[in-house]
Amino acid sequence: MQTLLACSTPVSDFAVYRQSDGTVGVHAPKGATDTEAHEAALLECKKLGKRAATIVTAHPTSNDRFPNTYIYNCTY
């Protein structure tokens, strides 16, 4: 089953990464919404065999390209 996203910001514009503690980080580009960041994290969680992404923290950064960072836990 393939998931189609209806985001105004392409998923490829997000910087998604896995952290050593098992969480997934998302650097969101300027103009991206919280929902779009969640969708990017959920795609990464699904690659790990998980079904859900739960927000742990969100904070602004000093990076002009990625002004917000989100951290998610992937769960079954």
What this model shows, in words?
- The chain is of the alpha+beta class and 76 residues long.
- The protein has one domain (11-75).
- It is built from 1 helix and 4 strands.
- It has one helix at residues 34-47, and strands at 15-18, 24-28, 52-60, 68-75.
- Strands 1-2-4-3 form a 4-stranded antiparallel β-sheet.
- The protein is globular and about 35 Å long.
- The mean pLDDT is 92.
At a glance:
The protein has about 80 residues and is α+β, with helices and mostly antiparallel strands. The chain has one helix and four strands, in the order ββαββ. It is about 20% helix and about 35% strand.
Task: Indicate the percent of residues in helices.
Answer: 10-25%
Radius of gyration: 12 Å
Strand content: 25-35%
Got a strand count?
A: 4
Biggest sheet record:
4 strands, antiparallel
Low-confidence stretches: none
Across the major sheet, the strand order is: 1-2-4-3
Strand and helix layout:
Layout: E1 15-18, E2 24-28, H1 34-47, E3 52-60, E4 68-75
Antiparallel strand pairs: 1-2, 2-4, 3-4
